[in-house]
Amino acid sequence: MKVLIVGGGGREHAITWAVAKSPRVDKIYAAPGNAGIAELAECVDISVMDAEKLVAFAKEKEIDFVIVGPDDPLAAGVADAFLDAGIKTFGPRKNAAIIEASKAFSKDLMKKYDIPSAKYETFTDPGKALDFLKTMNPPYVIKADGLALGKGVLICQNLDEASAGIREIMIDKKFGDSGNKIVIEEFMTGREVSVLCYSDGKTIRPMTSAQDHKRAGDGDTGLNTGGMGTFSPSPFYTAEVQKFCEENIYQKTIDAMAAEGREFKGVLFVGLMLTPDGPKVLEYNARFGDPEAQVVIPRMKNDIIDVMEACADGTLDKINLEFDDNAAVCVMLASDGYPVSYEKGFEIKGLENFKGRDDYFVFHSGTKFQDGKVVTNGGRVIGVVARGNDLKQARANAYKATELVNFENKYMRHDIGKAIDEA
User: Fold this and answer.
1) For 121, which of 5, 110, 292, 421 is 20 to 30 Å away at the CA?
2) pLDDT in tens, 221-264
3) Is the separation of the CB atoms in 82 and 89 below 8 Å?
4) Is 169 exposed, middle or buried (0-12, 13-18, 19+ CB in 10 A)?
């Protein structure tokens, strides 16, 4: 089987790593890939958004199966282009990817189908949004409606901050057209948990739980990022919580999308808040989380191709999804200054320390080859992942592994998974 993976981040590296283990796969291509993916796949310089070139390449190489990783191409209909060309593809069509591409759509869906979530209102007028805020108690949650690289959510502690946030999103257009509309939600308290679910449009198979760390600094301080690290499983995602979510959130969401004529095939990412009133949905994504994928995929026992193909074929009910009884922790190594401004092009040393190991992994997020060397090429550079018998051991292993790789301006949080100690 020939497989094309669309994307070039840590999520796609983790997917490529799993695809490469499948005995069914003979050849992997990645568009555009990165320096880490290049060790497992042939990278081709095609943009994730160039549907025409991607489809032409897939036809030329007689690709059997396509996996579309990132949110932007899914929201733009890149999966549709492959499917319409008769190429089997993993990833939702544009009309289903809207569950992530529009927060207003997803909030309206949850309200219509009685899926537990925070109370909210949507606005296209900054003045009316500010007037609404004055009727609420702080802190305030303000979300850009569209895609914003995981950074379009503001938690504002007072009215002045909220007013500045509305201006930033709707008037200054910090996130471009994604801020033409905003969602204002009530602030929820509790533990955050992420659960990724495979779906074939009818059947859903939840994966093991994970927990992300969005803020740039230790102690959850600083700006929101694409994710500074994760651990899996979450000790707060109990059997009782899982049962509630399977009955009241996951299946109901897939059924709701089907009822709306938006059959969802692919990975539904459900961000949960475990509130005092029970689990509620924080957000949906229409793909694997990044870096959640880096801790969930290495714990999956199944051949990833078997599962993804079942999602595409509508036969997921025949799959028994299994995960190892262990734990994994990912610590992102970033460029100092991320997510605001940072330098790139520094050589990454020590990557050879991870070759041939099955306890430590490095998944590349922002890297490239330059003059025969692997150099930094982004804010989030690599995810260092370690497994362990339990979360504490996995966390200790992950931080030990971060010492094996270095580059100038290397930055990381030192408290990834610290919540484990409180469980």
Assistant:
1) 292
2) 998 898 999 999 999 999 999 999 999 999 999 999 999 999 99
3) yes
4) buried
